[in-house]
Design a protein that fits this description.
The chain is an all-alpha fold. The protein contains 60 helices and nine strands. It is extended. The N terminus and C terminus are likely disordered.
């Protein structure tokens, strides 16, 4: 703010004509505030505002070309360099730099002199030293950013000298001058550096080892000007020809530590460190620098900033190092230290450097073209292991930048490390806790397991991440993972590449399971992998979004199945889980069927063939994982395939409908696969369903819809397998929904559960009594002491057995409840997966007539979900169903165009939907039913959307649009009109209707063809509606219908005039029935009626229709007298808008001059702080007389004091009877001071009055406290009845009267002069 205030003062001084080097300052300032606002905007904290203001200022100066404005601008900008606000200083500096760059005729030396003069560090006050220092610094920055400083040697020399002076103000500027000095030096040509700057900077260069800034200056000079700073000059400067040598190691370490701590907040590598690395490489002393300075020097400093600086130096050094130097660095202490840091900061509270290091690796690999260096870095970070597991993430995407050669070698190295783990080549570390918990023998085996798991995941991820991969490379990885997941080599075999090398450490069952899981993830990737290759054919296939095939069109999974068949027929390998004879037969049948499908593949049946082939081969691969269950699925699938592609099936299709077709069998198989826990099988099922969607039959669709039908009867054909991880349970569609509905009623379950518990408790009590009676403990004649030890032991045993049995029953019930809960979750998940198939069908087959069969089941599912539990899973399922209904069905732009054969069925469906919407109790569910009916209207009507008309053919496009609106398509307008007329009648007549006004508004807006049949009902119900609210709804709907321009296409001019006439008549009749006190519903009816009437009268006037308005006028004129309309601003405005069309104007209300009442006059005359006259005199006189005290000599009453108090006047002796010198002179009677009749001169006279005026505020503050304190100290005298009354009144008004009494006393009390 100080900077802005300074600007204001400067503007005022310039307006007064004070000391400005401007010829006509008043001429500059008289141009308006627009020019001055530029400088205010430059000082604002928002960067965009500052940049915009700078551009505007430059544009103004270029266009104006006025010298006085330019001089004023330079003065303002130079002064703003030292502004107090941090955001203002760089803003003025940038603006000054832009001005100097735009106007090269301005000499830099003169600007520099102005800066020095304005921000003189020697003359400035101590409080403004900081501002002056920043003013000089930002001034030099402006000169440097202008780009002209390097060309002007004199200005450059003075700027460097000024920066050197600013280095003494480190408390304010810190290291900014040194950094700026380095930046300027790096931009200077070598000749200028040698001739101008070297002599000035010689002192800084010679003291390079005293501060990181000076060292940085030296390192920049050595790199930029090697011809000037030769080894001989360096020796003269600081005694050695090189920087990195053994003598300077300790000093370099200390300087780098200091640099690390100064840059810790920026979280970046200090520039001096990177420059020192470059100089060390140039001097050939990199090994010395890395080992002595970094590893043995910096790493011993156990501090975060220094460690992070070492890590950043490691990442930044990668592009500069050779292969040999990379191997030294990647096997050194810094890497080991970095690995320990990554493992230690896996918890959320630690600062994680791993992501930053991965960024360094990514930058290096993307910019490096040498495959050897790329491979060295990847191998180095892959061998940094923690207990055998590499620190580098196995899912890291840095491999996408590897060259093809480097990628191939890296994959070969990974495979070799998997088969023959070489832990000696790894830079391994472990935490102390792991060292203590594990034995040495177990550690080595555990390291191998962890390393192999990481390698398999790394190989699988390469197929996703690598961009320069080839088909052979991907297939090599897939074969490697498949072999080691399901097979073991008996001995070496050169024919099988994966069996050519035997593992040095055999794989156990756990290893095979891990690799198996990763392999199926790889198989999922292969099924979605785009076509690889750079040829034109592969590019065209990628353009068609074909996935899961090679360049020659073969499926990836087919290649894997062929490879698996080769392994099964080989004698040199054996399966981890060998096939039985039945499984081997199924395998052979599957391969043969896949080959037959490959031969039958043609363009017409390509989708069908691809679906069966994909599913067959995927299930064949699953035969290696889950043999028992996969055999049954494969058997059904093979039968389905044979039936689908056999010639006899096509002949029987027309005659025999009892046997399910191949599509139905395929749907059943897909439903069973959706229940599997395998994500791969679920995705395959979804992709296969996309292929068979065009061939889906009504029976096949019904199988899917039966999953959601709670009333479906239980049979074997509709059985759906619902599986948990360990327990597999088969449930029918009926059982799933019945149990789900039972669980949804929590209250019934809790009640029945309580009754069962009571029964169980009673049974348990009876059994316990029997056990006790058997031990003879219930009889009254015998006591517990009569039982011997054996009887007691037997009794205890029986009781414990009884309680154990009871505990088992309780646990069994808990387990049953838990099982039911889990089954409910599984059933809901299964339904959500099946719902995905419905979504796929609605999107892919939107023009299929089977879409109509999905509408009602979807609506029933929504209705069922709304009436069930409100847990999160149920709400998510409801949201998903509703989104599919709205987006995939109702809002889909594609719909069935072959409706002609199904007209009657679709019209019947519309009727059912509207009737259900009318009968439903929930308005939200009714909205879904009504929306479905509108979707069917869209289908029957056809495509009613019109494209925007072209300018040349606007009339033709309008004619086409009109034809589209008038063409009903397959819609039976009369039949549908009857349906919606019944619905509209119910909406306007029934009390609790689920229908809403927005539903019918949507109907009229989307289908104007329905307006004419329904508009008569709206006109009729303006007066005949059952309730006021419904009359208002009728008026509003009629108003919206009349506003539609499309309505005139369906009615003639005569019908239009008749409609307007009848509408006016109905509204008039409606307004006749108004009662005098308008209720809330009536007010709403009046508002809607007036809005409609306003439109009707406007239409009559605008179109000059022959409508008589005399009856309207008779009804409307008396309404102006209703207070409810006049008091409501909305109704009043609507009323006079209507009357305007009848040539009535709203009378202007003259505000009558309000005469103030007597009380208001008194309040106005009464001064602030004074009491009313009634209380001021009468009460005081009454109190004085009752206390027997006479008034003062001039007729004014003597000043009253509260009982037991005295004012400051009494204390100072200024009031008679209150003198300190004569305490007995003032006699108190009944606690009130008695005043004599004689003259008693007042001490000090006018001097006292002056003193009162000076100390009035202080006395007013002390008065309340003094009175309260004295009241406590002085005991009160005996009070009479009058004094008690007076005291009570005084206490109530004392605090309000003190100030007024004081002023009045000073004005009225006579002051005697001596």
């Amino acid at each position: 703010m100080a900077g802005m205030e300074g600007m204001e003062e400067m503007e005022q001084n310039e307006q007064r004509g004070g000391g400005a080097p401007v010829t006509d300052p008043r001429g500059v300032l008289r141009q308006g505030r627009a020019f001055l606002d530029f400088f205010w905007d430059i000082a604002k904290p928002e960067q965009e505002v500052r940049l915009t203001a700078t551009e505007s200022l430059l544009r103004h100066l270029r266009e104006g070309k006025k010298d006085d404005e330019l001089k004023y601008t330079l003065k303002r900008l130079v002064e703003g360099l030292g502004a107090t606000r941090e955001a203002a200083r760089p803003g003025f500096s940038l603006a000054l730099a832009q001005v100097l760059q735009a106007f090269e005729e301005i000499p830099l030396c003169s600007i520099l002199e102005q800066i020095k003069e304005k921000h003189n560090l020697e003359k400035v006050k101590k409080k403004l030293v900081r501002n002056a220092a920043f003013g000089n610094f930002f001034g030099v920055m402006a000169l440097f950013q202008s780009g002209r400083l390097v060309k002007d040697r004199k200005a450059l020399l003075e700027s460097i000298q000024l920066l050197q002076q600013l280095t003494n103000h480190q408390t304010h500027l810190r290291d900014l001058p040194r950094k700026t000095l380095v930046d300027i030096t790096s931009e200077v040509p070598e000749t200028v550096f040698e001739e101008v700057l070297f002599d000035i900077l010689q002192g800084d260069l010679s003291s390079a080892f005293t501060s990181p800034e000076n060292l940085h200056l030296l390192l920049v000079g050595m790199q930029k000007f090697p011809g000037v700073l030769k080894p001989k000059k360096l020796k003269k400067l600081f005694g050695s020809p090189t920087v990195v040598n053994k003598e300077n190691i300790s000093r370099l370490v200390e300087l780098l530590k200091s640099a690390a701590k100064s840059e810790k907040e920026d979280k970046k590598l200090p520039s001096v460190v990177f420059d020192l690395l470059q100089v060390a490489l140039k001097e050939g002393a990199f090994e010395l620098f890395w080992s002595e300075v970094v590893e043995n020097g910096l790493l011993k400093e156990k501090s975060g900033p220094v460690s992070y600086m070492c890590y950043r130096l490691l990442g930044s050094a990668l592009p500069l190092l050779s292969v040999e130097q990379l191997q030294v660095v990647l096997k050194g202490k810094v890497m080991l230290h970095y690995g320990e840091h990554v493992v230690a900061t896996q918890f959320p509270q630690g600062f994680k450097f791993a992501a930053e290091m991965e960024g360094y690796i990514d930058t290096f690999l993307s910019g490096c073209d040498d495959p050897e260096r790329q491979l060295a870095v990847m191998m180095g970070f892959s061998t940094l292991t923690n207990q055998g597991k590499p620190v580098l993430l196995s899912a890291s995407r840095v491999v996408r930048h590897l060259q093809a050669v480097a990628l191939q070698k890296y994959i070969c190295w990974l495979k070799d490390m998997f088969l023959r783990p070489d832990l000696d080549c790894c830079l391994d570390f472990s935490s102390n806790r792991r060292k203590q918990n594990r034995e040495n023998a177990d550690i080595a085996q555990q390291k191998i397991v962890r390393l192999r798991k990481w390698i398999i995941h790394r190989l699988v991820n390469i197929t996703e991440s690598a961009t320069r991969k080839e088909e052979s490379l991907v297939m090599d990885i897939a074969r490697f993972c498949f072999f080691h997941a399901f097979f073991v080599a008996k001995k070496k075999n050169s024919q099988i590449a994966e069996a050519s090398v035997l593992p040095s450490e055999p794989l156990n069952e756990r290893d095979h399971t891990e690799i198996e899981n990763y392999f199926f993830g790889l198989l999922q990737t292969l099924n979605t992998l785009p076509v690889l290759g750079d040829t034109g054919e592969t590019a065209s296939l990628r353009g068609k979004h074909i996935h899961g095939v090679t360049a020659d069109g073969k499926l990836w999974v087919l290649l894997l199945v062929e490879y698996a068949n080769k392994l099964l027929s080989s004698e040199h390998v054996k399966a981890v889980k060998p096939f039985t004879k039945e499984q081997k037969d199924i395998w052979d049948r599957t391969l043969q069927s896949a080959k037959n499908l490959q031969k039958k593949g043609n363009k017409s049946d390509s989708a069908k063939v691809g679906a069966f082939q994909q599913l067959l081969l995927s299930m064949a691969i699953h035969l290696f994982k889950n043999q028992s269950e996969t055999v049954d699925v494969l058997s059904d699938l093979l039968n389905c395939t044979e039936r689908a592609f056999s010639k006899e099936a096509k002949k029987k299709k027309k005659t025999d409908n009892s046997e399910p077709g191949w599509v139905e069998v395929m749907v059943e198989i897909l439903l069973s696969l959706l229940a599997q826990p395998s994500l791969l099988l679920r995705r395959i099922s979804k992709s296969v369903f996309v292929w068979i969607c065009p061939n889906l039959t009504k029976r096949g669709l019904q199988l899917i819809l039966d999953v959601f039908d709670p009333n479906q009867e239980q049979d074997e054909e509709s059985a759906v397998v619902v599986m948990e991880e360990s327990n597999k349970k088969t449930k029918s569609a009926q059982d799933t929904d019945e149990e789900g509905s039972e669980d949804s009623s929590d209250e019934d379950n809790t009640d029945s559960g309580d009754e069962e518990n009571e029964e169980v408790d009673e049974n348990f009590r009876t059994q316990l009594m029997k056990v006790l009676q058997a031990g003879n403990t219930v009889e009254g004649d015998k006591s517990d002491e009569e039982l011997d030890d054996e009887a007691m032991m037997a009794l205890d045993k029986n009781i414990s057995a009884l309680f154990a049995e009871q505990q088992k029953r309780i646990q069994a019930k808990k387990d049953e409840k838990d099982r039911m809960r889990k089954e409910k979750i599984l059933r809901r998940d299964f339904k959500a997966k099946v719902l995905d198939l419905i979504d796929v069908f609605l999107i892919k087959q939107a023009e299929n007539p089977l879409v109509f069969d999905i509408i009602e089941p979807l609506l029933q599912l929504i209705e069922q979900c709304m009436s069930s539990d409100s847990d999160k899973q149920e709400l998510d399922f409801l949201q998903k169903t509703a989104n599919i209904f709205k987006n995939s069905l109702c809002r889909n732009k594609q719909y069935c165009k072959r409706v002609a054969p199904l007209q009657e069925d679709v019209h019947a469906l519309v009727q059912r939907l509207v009737q259900k919407a009318c009968k439903h109790s929930d308005s939200a569910v009714a909205l879904y039913y009504f929306s479905a009916s509108l979707y069917l209207l869209k289908v029957l009507k056809g495509n009613t959307s019109s494209t925007p008309p072209e300018p040349e053919k606007q009339s033709d496009s309008r004619a086409k649009q009109a034809c589209q609106l008038l063409n009903p398509g397959c819609l039976n307008v009369k039949k549908v009109a009857v349906i919606y007329q019944e619905a509209l009648t119910q909406f306007l007549s029934k009390r609790n209707s689920p229908l809403t006004c927005s539903m019918f508004h949507d109907l009229f807006k989307r289908f104007p063809i329905m307006c004419k049949p329904l508009v008569d009902i709206l006109v009729e119900f303006i007066t005949t509606a059952a309730r006021q609210h419904q009359q208002a709804m009728a008026c509003m709907l009629l108003h919206k219908v009349l506003l539609l321009h499309e309505l005139k296409l369906f009615i003639t001019e005569e019908e239009w005039e008749q409609l307007i006439t009848r509408s006016i008549s109905q509204v008039t009749e409606c307004l006749k029935t108004l009662g005098k006190p308008l209720m809330k519903a009536e007010k709403e009816k009046v508002a809607k009626s007036l809005e409609l009437l306003n439109f009707l009268l406007k239409t009559v006037t605008g179109q000059k229709l022959n409508v008589k308005l005399t009856e309207v006028e008779k009804v409307l004129v008396p309404l102006s007298q209703l207070e409810d309309i006049g008091n409501s601003p909305r109704l009043d405005s609507l009323y006079w808008n209507v009357m305007r069309w009848l040539n009535y104007t709203k009378p202007k209300k003259e505000k009558p001059a309000s005469k103030p009442t007597q009380g208001e006059e008194l309040l106005k005359k009464k001064k602030k702080g004074f009491l009313p006259e009634t209380k001021k005199r009468k009460n005081r006189k009454k109190g004085i007389q009752e206390n027997g005290v006479a008034p003062g000599e001039d007729g004014e009453p003597a000043e009253e004091q509260p009982l037991g108090t005295e004012t400051p006047k009494h204390k100072k002796g200024l009031v008679p009877g209150g003198s300190k010198k004569h305490p007995n002179k003032g006699v108190r009677e009944n606690g009130v001071a008695k005043v004599d009749g004689g003259d008693h001169p007042t001490a000090n006279g006018d001097a006292v009055a002056d003193k009162k005026k000076k100390k009035r505020k202080r006395k007013n503050r002390k008065r309340k406290g003094a009175a309260g304190n004295e009241a406590e100290q002085v005991p009160a005298a005996k009070k009479t009845k009058g004094s008690v009354v007076q005291e009570t009144k005084q206490k109530e008004t004392q605090q309000k009267q003190n100030k007024a009494k004081k002023k009045r006393k000073e004005k009225q009390a006579p002051v005697q002069q001596e």
